[in-house]
């Protein structure tokens, strides 16, 4: 979609939202998923990430298997299928998984926070999907999330963990050769359960967004460069914020923030006004129970970002269709495996150009694949 057409459609969406016109005010096109297929992975998966692990031009999936002391790599074939999982040992309770080239050899490596051990484990890839040489580095107490990002703009990836029992985050600066410095810990207002990095105040420095389960808020730590952060600023969301997404949801050039609220079964959308300022949130109900994660991705191919949540207690995925003006309407509901709190990811599994979804299901120890049939038609519940 070219820029002029996209801008005209966005202006029409804004007019519809404001009630200024009835022309062109149809709901965004529906999303249609095929019934989910499933693949067995390691025990009790708690997280997922996507990357081209074996450098064949096809996106693969990697999961952190909380009850199995492993990460599982599922190599995609680009035609809708995945190979049997390749399991690599990473130590006890891998609660999350991050991917990046930590030692500069051109192969992707992986890292996990080891919940209950106060450390992260880094394993080094050989380019085939296998990881070896696990190396541990200390963090705060009970790390549960991890990010691999370049905080000081030196070209080397650094690590950030959120530490649930410690009530803080740990920053470990990387040397680009596979080693990391001692952690620098920064307190958070409440126990952190979700972690995301983005430049919210548009100063060219990454900031951190932290979700606090058991609360009604998220905190933002604005970066100052070199891996340092200002004191947290708290914004109110709703009950038990458990999923975070950052994207330009209304196409105005500013970053917006969306939060999936596990306890209130809805999503709070904060439209950005630039330089780290946000409008008051709009809340959109989710037609599933206990959303544990959140994605911002165009699922119906209209050029506007939609929102998708993986719902822990109802074992499904909900879609909220975006109109390009930062507003959302209820969309598809698709069944997946048992307790998909392990995560949700977007990729083109079958190479047809439409964005598909995968969920990682904690209780059934498997991954569900939802192939996107494209837009159009009525709301459907795949799998029933």
TrEMBL record:
Under the heading Gene3D superfamilies, the entry gives:
2.30.30.100
The region annotated as signal peptide is: 1-26
Instruction: List where the protein spans the membrane.
Output: none
- State the Pfam families in the record: FG-GAP_3
PROSITE patterns found in the cross-reference section: PROKAR_LIPOPROTEIN
Q: Does the keyword Amino-acid biosynthesis apply?
A: no
Q: Sorted alphabetically, which keywords does the UniProt record give?
A: Signal
Record keywords: Zinc included?
no
InterPro entries, per the entry: FG-GAP (IPR013517), Integrin_alpha_N (IPR028994)
The name of this protein is Putative aggregation factor core protein MAFp3, isoform C
